[in-house]
Design goal:
- By secondary structure, the protein is α/β, with parallel strands linked by helices.
- It folds into 3 domains: about 220 residues, FAD/NAD(P)-binding domain (3-Layer(bba) Sandwich), CATH 3.50.50; about 110 residues, no CATH class; about 120 residues, no CATH class.
- Helices cover about 35% and strands about 20% of the residues.
- The protein has 16 helices and 19 strands.
- The strands form 5 sheets. It has a 7-stranded mixed beta sheet. A 5-stranded parallel beta sheet has the order 9-2-1-13-19. A 3-stranded antiparallel beta sheet has the order 10-11-12, with no helix packed on it.
- Helix 1 runs parallel beside helix 10 and helix 1 packs parallel to helix 16.
- The chain is globular.
- The chain starts with 18 loop residues before the first strand and ends with a helix.
């Protein structure tokens, strides 16, 4: 549908040059693995953890199950297309539920907005909370729909060369990409009320950026939410990588867990394989790196081995914020919203604190109460509660060993007073915390930047790390640190692009 469907579906392995090693079983790596295995390549996925998924893997605490990271499934059609390209249906592997309402947004002045992708419901809600602004919704759908249609197929293209970046097709869409101004500015073309604009701009957190700094082109994110809806996968979004790994195996590919890569092996400037933690070496014709971008460039190469991605140059790049995470198994069934975003008293100051490296006492946070939709995540009468607080990344030098428990109490205070769970402390059976430091040390996330490289204009398209590495032959990238960027749909697209590049060769 988006161009990759025309790629060759079968490759003659006798022709050689077809052994593919993939470092990391995250969503991007598994997407590439599915497509390449289906096309006849000899695919081996190497995952250091016991389970596939990376930041989309499950966290199991006793009888409670949580998603580690992503909890929103947007643009489900992208995932559907990956399965269709392997002659399969996603619904044969996964059970999806469209959420309506999609989420609830609460402001500090007791103003609450229920967000739906049903146009009539959304128009009525805007009229209820922000009377007089509802006409802007139709304009939003019309203009952002046109922009989306101009942009979306360009995301499926490779920008590993300047020629591809300066192609007539991309240049014709340049006005849609490079609008000027921020997503918050652009929403002012539709809505005058500042809080209503925030309702359509908080999604910039997916990109790790402030609504007042995030490029206006990313207005397509709230558009796709409202146009296509948000889905929950029964059992958690961690079921998606499990299903993908199953398809890889059905296509005679290998998915090896508990297998840590310590080095990418090269002959001159050409990849020839990988070395494992046990010293074993595996030979591959091509290697796809699905590990966190900054971590991989530092871990698998010497500090000055790469010109574009040397340690010094990595340190100069812009990165997203981090997150403080709480996973709570509680012995009570809460009827709070499935997805609930609660804004700081001074939202703009909170965003500024994050970007300037300060830890706010007045913070915004997100609560997922998926048990209200999915009873498989917790025992009967109980809830699996997931709490995310955007924080500075580890460039801020916050002492998280000292702050970890102190901050947990601050987070629980706000959950009890703002999120409709006033007694949650009394019902916690099991809990887990992930701090920004732990994202870096335990999950190999460079400087704990959970949304990877920022998406400012100097780090998009050709200016983002390329899907095909320009410095080392036969090395490719997938995931949030390469084109087109972070977020599940775009990470799937990165796998599609990379698989297409290898197939085309």
């Amino acid at each position: 549908m988006w161009g990759f469907m025309a790629m060759p579906q079968t490759i003659d392995n006798k022709a050689g040059k077809n052994k593919i090693g993939i470092i990391g079983a995250g969503p991007g790596g598994l997407t590439a693995a599915m497509l390449l295995a289906h096309r006849g390549f000899d695919v081996t996925v190497l995952e250091k953890e016991k389970e596939v998924g990376g930041r989309s893997a499950p966290i199991t605490l006793g009888d409670f199950t949580f998603d580690t990271g992503p909890t929103f499934l947007m643009m489900k059609h992208v995932l559907d297309e990956v399965f269709e390209s392997c002659d399969r249906k996603s619904t044969d592997y996964l059970q999806f539920k469209l959420l309506d309402p999609m989420y609830q947004l609460d402001f500090s002045d007791d103003l609450s907005v229920t967000i739906s992708n049903d146009k009539e419901k959304m128009k009525a809600e805007i009229n209820r909370v922000f009377p007089g602004n509802e006409k802007g919704l139709e304009k939003f759908y019309l203009k952002e729909g046109k922009r989306y249609r101009k942009i979306i197929d360009k995301l499926y293209r490779d920008y590993s060369s300047l020629t591809s970046f300066l192609s007539p097709k991309l240049l014709s869409a340049a006005p849609a990409f490079f609008l000027g101004g921020s997503i918050f500015d652009n929403l002012g073309n539709y809505f005058k009320e500042e809080k209503l604009r925030i309702c359509f701009t908080f999604q910039s957190k997916y990109l790790g950026m402030s609504p007042w700094e995030c490029p206006a082109a990313f207005t397509m994110i709230p558009f796709v939410e409202h146009e296509f809806g948000i889905y929950h996968v029964m059992g958690g979004l961690s079921q998606i990588p499990k299903a993908m790994a199953k398809v890889v195996k059905e296509e005679n590919g290998q998915v090896l867990t508990d297998t840590t890569v310590t080095k990418i092996l090269k002959n001159g400037k050409k990849v020839v394989g990988v070395q494992l933690a046990d010293g074993k070496q595996l030979n591959f014709d091509k290697v796809i790196v699905n590990a966190d971008f900054g971590y991989a460039m530092n871990e698998f190469f010497e500090p000055t081995e790469l010109k574009k991605y040397s340690t010094e140059k990595l340190e100069k790049k812009n990165y997203s914020c981090s997150t403080y995470m709480l996973y709570l198994g509680v012995d009570k069934k809460y009827q709070a919203p499935h997805h609930h975003i609660l804004f700081a008293d001074d939202y703009r100051q909170n965003i500024a604190d994050i970007s300037e490296g300060r830890l706010s006492d007045d913070f915004s946070f997100y609560v997922q109460n998926a048990s209200v939709t999915d009873e498989s995540l917790a025992p009967s009468g109980k809830s699996a509660v997931y709490v995310l607080v955007p924080t500075p990344n580890n460039r801020a030098n916050i002492d998280w060993d000292a702050e970890k428990d102190v901050y947990k109490e601050k987070v629980l205070d706000r959950v009890e007073t703002h999120a409709g769970m006033s007694d949650i402390r009394d019902h916690i059976e099991v809990e887990k915390v992930i701090t920004p430091k732990q994202w870096e040390t335990d999950y190999n996330v460079y400087i704990g930047a959970t949304f990877n490289l920022s998406h400012n204009l100097s780090q998009m398209l050709y200016f983002r790390p390329h899907n095909r590495c320009s410095e080392i032959k036969n090395m490719y990238l997938v995931g949030g640190g390469t084109h087109p960027g972070s977020g599940l749909p775009t990470i799937y697209i990165s796998g599609i692009v990379t698989a297409g590049l290898i197939s085309k060769q």
